[in-house]
Amino acid sequence: MSATDAGCRVYLVTPPALDPARFRDTLAAALDAGDVACLQLRLKDAAPDDVKRAVELLMPVAHARDVAFLLNDDARLAKELGCDGAHLGQEDGDHAAARALLGEATLGITCHASRHLAMEAGELGADYVAFGAFFPTATKVTEHEAGTDLLEWWSEMFEIPCVAIGGITAENCGPLVRAGADFLAVVGAVWNHPEGPAAGLRVLNAAIAAA
Ligand SMILES: Cc1ncc(COP(=O)(O)OP(=O)(O)O)c(N)n1
Ligand SMILES: Cc1ncsc1CCOP(=O)(O)O
Ligand SMILES: [Mg+2]
């Protein structure tokens, strides 16, 4: 999951619900359509055995395409299953313990729209900080609204990459890229694109390149 030398890149998050055996081909076709730095498996409320099966089926698809594979919410399971890292929210356990457990693996932390949370995450060794939501989203109920000033401030002050999330599309992403986002994390822009995920990724890549 390399960031700044390649400019802003796509951070793809899985759809909220999926059947891994069926989704495998959908994922492969989407990843083959363009540039993705990282895939986050985000299956809220799935049982650990179901998450495990999804990791076993989907991580090889990502790795075959040089895409890092992160697990949402659970650093211990990420470590146990050999994922490239974990994404943790503010309610997802002890971040310092997760940092120690993950070792060299990637740790990303949700910081909502808070400079304070982002500096805390940076101090404890997060590999990236995530800000959002930048736009209204149908994927998750959100309580925080982030603005481009946060991305400008963070990228001027710190080397640690920042991720923008929340309602991001090809049409609205330009200001985020220009403000310094290292990654744009998306669900709907790819999986719900009217012309399909491959088209969704292609137009998002093109919009980032044009920003
Ligand atoms: C890249 C990225 N940023 C933020 C989130 C949100 O994480 P969290 O606040 O823990 O909420 P849930 O995803 O667990 O609903 C994320 N998953 N990925
Ligand atoms: C997981 C998450 N955290 C903040 S907004 C969001 C959902 C992002 O999905 P979309 O790209 O469809 O708005
Ligand atoms: Mg979480």
TrEMBL record:
User: Could you say which residues bind 4-amino-2-methyl-5-(diphosphooxymethyl)pyrimidine here?
Assistant: Q40, L41, R42, L43, K44, N72, T110, K140
Give any Pfam family that matches. TMP-TENI
CC cofactor: Mg(2+)
The gene name reads thiE
**Family indicated by similarity:** Belongs to the thiamine-phosphate synthase family.
Q: Where does 2-[(2R,5Z)-2-carboxy-4-methylthiazol-5(2H)-ylidene]ethyl phosphate bind?
A: T137, A138, T139, G167
Show the catalytic activity.
2-[(2R,5Z)-2-carboxy-4-methylthiazol-5(2H)-ylidene]ethyl phosphate + 4-amino-2-methyl-5-(diphosphooxymethyl)pyrimidine + 2 H(+) = thiamine phosphate + CO2 + diphosphate; 4-methyl-5-(2-phosphooxyethyl)-thiazole + 4-amino-2-methyl-5-(diphosphooxymethyl)pyrimidine + H(+) = thiamine phosphate + diphosphate; 2-(2-carboxy-4-methylthiazol-5-yl)ethyl phosphate + 4-amino-2-methyl-5-(diphosphooxymethyl)pyrimidine + 2 H(+) = thiamine phosphate + CO2 + diphosphate
Q: Name one GO molecular function term.
A: thiamine-phosphate diphosphorylase activity
Return the protein name.
Thiamine-phosphate synthase
Q: Which organism is it from?
A: Plastoroseomonas hellenica
E.C. designation(s)? 2.5.1.3
